[in-house]
Specification:
It is built from eleven helices and three strands, in the order ααβααααααααββα. The protein is mainly α.
Length: about 280
């Protein structure tokens, strides 16, 4: 069963496609966030920022573009954290007992669920980027076709590493829980501080010092920095702040996500090794 994870992956993707309500809602929700929240807020912020001087060498971007990267990250976070609920349903339906009793390695279960979650995150990220461009975000503005391809691949690389970390965390939580309500409660508890203690919707300069430190080491901030670097550029001005990203900054953010994913995998591996499903 060397490729057992592919069976787990394919089974989860078939379930994702066949459940039309889940499929449509997971694809429409981020677009609606960007359309309603983004357009409504951008009209206010752009009016407040109008007339402010732009630093030399930087190009100004509207709030819709700024928060578009945050919406991609938010969607990836929600999709990843809820990815483990498949494991919990399998436990409750008795399917997980059969999988654990099969020759499939427990590591393959983790990787199969993680790979399907990353695939879903890719689909959603691409939809948000395309939809965002259609409604006015300045993603890849002035890029050549080659730069667009590099930008999209860079964004997907960041999305993949971020999604893997939270999918491993979700799998570790799910294999330890007994009820969907308990899992949803833990996930809800995690999503709020992770999302709002990041630069998804606003700059973090005015945060209290402790929140600034948390934001710097927040995996979501690392993801958003990577998305903005590849989608907007290394030098732009938004919400009264001049953003400058160097290649070293982006590599450091990616390395941080790699370390985070590695730690979460060890946690998931440890929990699956100790799991007893009756």
């Amino acid at each position: 069963m060397a490729y057992g994870f592919l069976t787990i992956y394919w089974r989860d993707m078939i379930r994702f496609v066949r459940f039309k309500t889940l499929l449509v809602s997971s694809l429409l929700q981020p677009a609606l966030w960007l359309a309603f929240f983004g357009i409504a807020m951008s009209s206010n912020f752009d009016r407040l920022m109008a007339g402010m001087p732009v630093p030399a060498g930087a190009h100004a971007v509207g709030y819709l573009t700024f928060m578009g990267a945050g919406i991609i990250a938010m969607t990836t976070l929600f999709t990843s954290l809820f990815g483990g609920i498949v494991i919990l349903f399998d436990k409750n339906w008795g399917l997980m007992r059969e999988i654990l009793a099969s020759p499939v390695s427990r590591n393959h279960i983790i990787f199969g669920i993680a790979l399907s979650g990353v695939t879903k995150s890719f689909i959603q990220a691409i939809i948000i980027m395309v939809f965002g461009i259609l409604i006015g975000t300045a993603f890849f503005a002035g890029y050549t076709p080659v730069q667009v391809v590099i930008g999209v691949l860079g964004i997907l690389a960041f999305v993949a590493m971020f999604a893997l970390g939270f999918l491993f965390l979700s799998a570790a939580i799910a294999i330890s829980m007994e009820s969907p309500e308990g899992l949803q409660g833990v996930i809800t508890l995690l999503t709020m501080p992770i999302f709002f203690a990041s630069n998804a919707l606003y700059p973090t300069d005015t945060f209290p010092e402790i929140l600034k430190v948390i934001s710097v080491y927040n995996p979501m901030t690392m993801l958003i920095n990577g998305i903005r670097y590849f989608a907007i550029g290394p030098d732009f001005y938004a919400l009264g702040k001049h953003y400058v990203f160097t290649q070293a900054d982006i590599l450091l953010s990616f390395l941080g996500l790699v370390i985070f994913s590695g730690i979460m995998f060890v946690l998931a591996w440890w929990r699956f090794r100790r799991a007893v499903v009756t």
